[in-house]
Specification:
By secondary structure, this protein is mainly alpha-helical. It is 77% helix and 0% strand.
């Protein structure tokens, strides 16, 4: 019941139920019982969802102490606690410490649930995200390759999570200048999203947009324009005119016009992007790589 309340965002009600459960388990099982540790873990989960990271950390550590004492280091519940601690540390900005905890989780879980389990892929993906933010692109890309191997074994080529991983990996490849590899990954993501969601979906539009950006980098401006227009048509249909993704499409199309020297058309597109940004009050969010003042007029 408390788990359902948590998923519904009713954190105070969930916390009340978990605290009641903790009182009962302390009385019936004592402070060092695995069931008591499970309740501490559940309380920490709610604290984490509420953004109360210091309290969540303290409560996860309580659960970890009990699990190490009663279940041992190589138990799946102990591994899960390391995984939870990693999430808190990462949320607090402790990326290096988070990587250490994720590795502890993996060291145990590779032995207990096997290398092809979806939870292993989630840990690799979390580590790749941290490594990418640290600028360690090569290591992050290798992690994403491991994630893809697991996802392809479990969900195949028509799994939306596989498309997400392809996209994340492609963005890192793009940043390090590996445009051909990035294009291949973006195209793989597009194929999956077309098969999974169809053409008129915001994620399909995102894939078209990613491919068009690479084409523009490669000097294929006319083809980039055509595919950006496909993305824009979907976004207008699915998201409407006044959405930040629609503004992004206008801005990217303007970038291509600008690179082609078609400055009047570029200006029109940038002005549409700026109008949407103004009306949606998304100050501080990027809608493209340039602003109106950047246009070569």
């Amino acid at each position: 019941m408390a788990g359902v309340l948590r998923r519904q965002g009713k954190f105070d009600e969930a916390m009340n139920m978990h605290n009641l459960s903790l009182q009962i388990r302390l009385q019936s099982h004592g402070g060092d019982h695995p069931d008591t540790a499970a309740t501490h873990n559940n309380i920490a989960n709610v604290l984490y969802d509420q953004g109360r990271y210091n309290e969540a950390m303290e409560t996860y550590l309580t659960a970890l102490d009990i699990r190490l004492k009663r279940l041992g280091h190589d138990h799946p519940d102990t591994a899960q606690t390391y995984n939870n601690l990693a999430a808190v540390l990462n949320a607090q900005g402790g990326s290096e410490e988070a990587l250490v905890m994720y590795q502890k989780y993996l060291d145990i879980s590779l032995k207990t649930i096997g290398k092809d389990h979806p939870d292993i892929a989630l840990a690799y993906s979390s580590m790749a995200l941290i490594l990418g933010k640290q600028g360690k692109r090569y290591e992050a890309i290798q992690m994403y390759r491991q994630v893809l191997q697991i996802q392809l074994k479990n969900g195949g080529m028509n799994d939306s999570e596989t498309a997400t991983t392809c996209t994340k990996m492609a963005k890192l490849l793009e940043k390090q200048g590996s445009l051909e590899e990035a294009m291949a990954s973006y195209q793989q993501a597009l194929e999956i999203r077309l098969a999974t969601f169809g053409n008129d979906h915001r994620l399909t539009a995102e894939s078209y947009c990613n491919i068009a950006v690479i084409l523009n980098f490669q000097g294929e401006q006319e083809q980039a324009l055509r595919i950006h227009q496909q993305a824009l048509d979907i976004r207008l249909k699915v998201l409407g005119q006044y959405h930040r993704d629609t503004a992004q499409s206008y801005s990217y199309i303007a970038d291509v016009y600008d690179d082609l020297g078609r400055y009047d058309e570029a200006m029109q597109m940038y002005e549409k992007a700026v109008e949407i940004k103004r009306k949606t009050r998304s100050s501080g969010s990027s809608v493209g790589s340039k602003t109106v003042r950047d246009i070569k007029i």
